[in-house]
Design brief:
The structure is a single chain. The protein has 209 residues and is mainly α. It has two domains: 98 residues, no CATH class; 105 residues, no CATH class. The chain is 68% helix and 0% strand. It contains eleven helices and no strands.
Length: 209
């Protein structure tokens, strides 16, 4: 991963983490005596301030300013100036979430794709069974981040078939050169064997060597 991109991801993750700490844990570090019984969580769930004539409006303003101040204090100057227009905790939190909430997941997804693309038996020093298990773990973790359930049923079915074939290709491409003849045999078979059929063939060959 390019260093500027990694630096940006770390910066975004740090911003979100600091704001999270500021809202939920700042009472342990900084006094917040002015806060009412309303918790920061309750304030975050309030999309709009109470009406000006509402008796709790004055305390709401105190709570909002106190928590907002803690969140701003945890930010770097360049980040702080981006969010000056946010005058309530809910609006600031919503903006931060939209901008940074997926930074960690995106970084992990990118790393998984890199690991899969670079994976091979020889580079990892694994047996066929171990190499298959390594790829399987990467695929399963990716599936947790990129859920097919978010797609319409027909699209999810087509995507699952495409992924199954892609996984077979990735497994065969990463095998040691000693399995070249079996790899070509699997590629030339029509219809192409499933991932598990291809694995069974290669694994059996390795065990009998």
């Amino acid at each position: 991963m390019a260093m500027p991109l990694m630096k940006e991801i770390k910066r975004r993750a740090t911003v979100l983490m600091c704001c999270y700490i500021a809202v939920y844990f700042s009472p342990h570090y900084l006094p917040m005596d002015n806060l009412s019984s309303t918790t920061p969580t309750e304030l975050l769930s309030t999309t709009t301030p109470p009406a000006a004539t509402n008796p709790i409006r004055a305390q709401w303003d105190i709570d909002n300013c106190t928590i907002l101040g803690r969140m701003f204090n945890f930010m770097e100057d360049q980040i702080y100036h981006m969010f000056l227009y946010c005058d309530t905790v809910p609006s600031l939190w919503q903006t931060l979430s939209q901008m940074y909430a997926h930074a960690h997941n995106d970084a992990r997804i990118l790393k998984l794709y890199q690991d899969i693309a670079q994976a091979s038996q020889s580079s990892l020093g694994l047996s066929v069974a171990e190499f298959f298990g390594y790829l399987q773990a990467c695929w399963e973790e990716l599936a947790q981040y990129e859920l097919l359930t978010n797609l319409p049923p027909e699209a999810a079915f087509l995507m699952s078939k495409r992924l199954a074939r892609q996984h077979t290709y990735q497994f065969l491409m990463g095998l040691n050169s000693e399995f070249e003849s079996l790899r070509i045999q699997n590629h030339n078979t029509s219809p192409m064997p499933s991932l598990y059929e291809a694995y069974a063939t290669i694994d059996s060959d390795e065990r009998h060597r």
